[in-house]
Amino acid sequence: LELVLACHFFQFTRACKSIQSARVTGFLLGYDEDDIGEDACTIYPMQLTWQNQPIFFSQARSLLLPGSNGSIIMRSGEEIQLSCPGSRTRCSRSANVGLTCQNSQFFLDGSRQEELTACDCMNDPKEQEEDSNLSCGPADSGRLINIGFQVEDSFTSILSLCHNVEDENTYYAKHLIHGPGLK
Fold first, then answer.
1. Contact of 134 with 143, CB cutoff 8 Å
2. Most buried among 124, 145, 169, 174, using CB within 10 Å?
3. SS3 per residue for the chain
4. pLDDT tens for residues 124-180?
């Protein structure tokens, strides 16, 4: 039952928006205003008028979260992926679209210039469960279950649960809370 509740948590709290609005101290990968270059691109996810916000991923950085000023900064030539697991993006009609920064402009799949507001998801991104096949909990009576997002061949876990299916008992949950705003 707890596992089902955790899954519904993602759906009903619109977890994608929570993930994207999380605040991380400093810029991603140590980028600061001095070394990103003047032709960088900046995304302010919370200022875009998306109906269903995509999730930001990069091969170099995995899940991308906004920095302390609410932005995601891309160097010129850098590519990230906008992902709508279980849905499609409006701008490409596929679940994933590559977004490249070139001279302070965004290009989809390396060629077509596009406004980011046109690249939201048709529906909320859909989470998935992944059974890690690892034992956990008292006397190893539970199974470690990961809940997260499948993007192409990569699974990104957001929440891990140690759950015993037989007695419907969750022993513990593990997740990261991002943000300097936590007191």
1. yes
2. 145
3. CHHHHHHHHHHHCCHHHHHHHCCCCCCHHHCCCCCCCCCCEEECHHHCCCCCCCEEEECCCEECCCCCCCCEEECCCCEEEEECCCCCECCCCCCEEEEEEECCEEEECCCEECCHHHCCECCCCCCEEEEEEEEECHHHCEEEEEEEEEECCEEEEEEEEEEECCCCEEEEEEECCCCCCCC
4. 999 999 999 999 999 999 999 999 998 888 888 889 999 998 999 999 999 877 664
